[in-house]
Design brief:
This protein is mainly alpha-helical. The chain has 3 helices and 3 strands; from the N terminus they run αααβββ. The chain has a 3-stranded antiparallel sheet with strand order 1-2-3, covered by helices on one side.
């Protein structure tokens, strides 16, 4: 009976020692976890990048669209001054009284938009393109962003007119 007891005690000690020795993960377990994480990243990262780019496009549309922030400021300028800023005056006329407007008349009630002309940039840190009278909006103004490719006149431009 004593021998059986000794064997059981020895087996219990061996099991306890095995549990104590096995504290870390095996290389195979680590590789499986890394593989799963890489697979998840392959699906998640592209979706996040597309979402980020789409958000920038939406912000630019809100700025230049017919009811956008910049368009609204330009229309308010016209309401006070009587005409849209000329192309050579550009969007700076929304911040500082242009030379074509007589200061004594006090018709310029700006600034019409917050910030500075240097801060007025699209989500890709490019200047907005402004033209008055517009080529497409002949009785108004053309306002656009060069879009994600930062090149004027390409398909990804964001503009306040529709092509005919």
């Amino acid at each position: 009976m004593m021998i059986g007891q000794v064997q059981r005690n020895q087996m219990q000690r061996t099991q306890i020692q095995r549990k104590r020795i096995r504290r870390g993960f095996s290389l195979l377990e680590i590789l499986i976890v890394v593989g799963i994480l890489a697979l998840l990243a392959a699906f998640v990262v592209p979706n996040l990048m597309r979402s980020s780019e789409q958000a920038k496009i939406d912000i630019a549309k809100m700025a230049v669209g017919r009811s956008g922030d910049i368009s609204g400021a330009i229309k308010k300028y016209k309401f006070h001054v009587g005409n849209y800023p000329e192309t050579d005056e550009g969007l700076e006329a929304l911040f500082r009284i242009p030379s074509s407007v007589d200061e004594d008349d006090k018709i310029w009630k700006g600034p019409y938009i917050e910030g500075t002309p240097e801060e007025l940039r699209d989500p890709w840190n490019q200047e907005f393109v402004y033209e008055s009278p517009g080529k497409f909006n002949e009785d108004g103004f053309d306002l656009s962003s060069k879009g994600p490719d930062k090149k004027e006149g390409t398909d990804d431009d964001i503009k306040n007119w529709t092509e005919r």
